[in-house]
Design brief:
Tet_reg_excision_RteC; mainly alpha; 2 domains; Tetracycline regulation of excision, RteC; 282 residues; globular; 11 helices
Amino acid sequence: MSITNYSEQVLTNLRRDLGILMLDGDNKLIQFESAFYLVDKALAKVKHYLSSYEFKTDEEEITFFKDLMSEFLKESVYFAELFNLESSKPPGPKKEIKRYFEGELKSIRSFLRNNQNLYNYLLLNKTNQDKVFFLRSSMTPIYKPNLFWQTLDTRFCTVYTLYFARIKGSLALSEFIDYQLKLLNGDESEPSYKRKNPLHWTGKKVELVELVYALKQTGVINHGRADLKEIAHRMGSFLGMNLQDFYKTFSEISIRKKSRTAFLDTLRDRLTDYLEKGEALN
């Protein structure tokens, strides 16, 4: 199994377990600590798999370190910072708690400003520097000196993987703090970080890619004007499946020796069987 497929499976299971954990109990410190260790165990699995794995292409390595490893590390950053945030929070009064949260938000914004170039690279989903940022063989100097570079284990990530993870974790933490401030102001509407999608794609990535292309070619989304990349991104995001390299996956579909539309054929056959059984019951 490829490292990307393996990591996606581990990440899907991790997010499911984190979702269940966040429903249990009222002690936030225990929740955040337990969540951190869940992430740590997931990371250990991926690192173990990676230790004996050889990337087939530069694109595979970039996808792993840019999109997957940064997600695991982002969760680690997020729950570690949540634990620190909660453990350092003043007991009251409300005014003091608000001041504390506002100070934390200010620190996050300062961090994002100091890393504005990488923040923009992430937000705009740029790829022009990916070979510099996410290949372990790249010896290009980092754009800003930082002490953690000296202790970085380059077997398991690049320095920019860590930067991306820190940025992603900071954005998630900012969202959490924003909600805490809303609660203090009497707004109890559900925050977006709690609105987790319970639906996850549990089939193969190649099957979802096949479906994405079929939807694009039938023109049933936005009257056919929807961009293929946008459809892939939205469906992947909604169903918890990373489709960053969907072009490569589709190239594998196009060279199949048997049916190029194996998944769509299965969908048709299953629905036909269901309809026939339904007719038999009438």
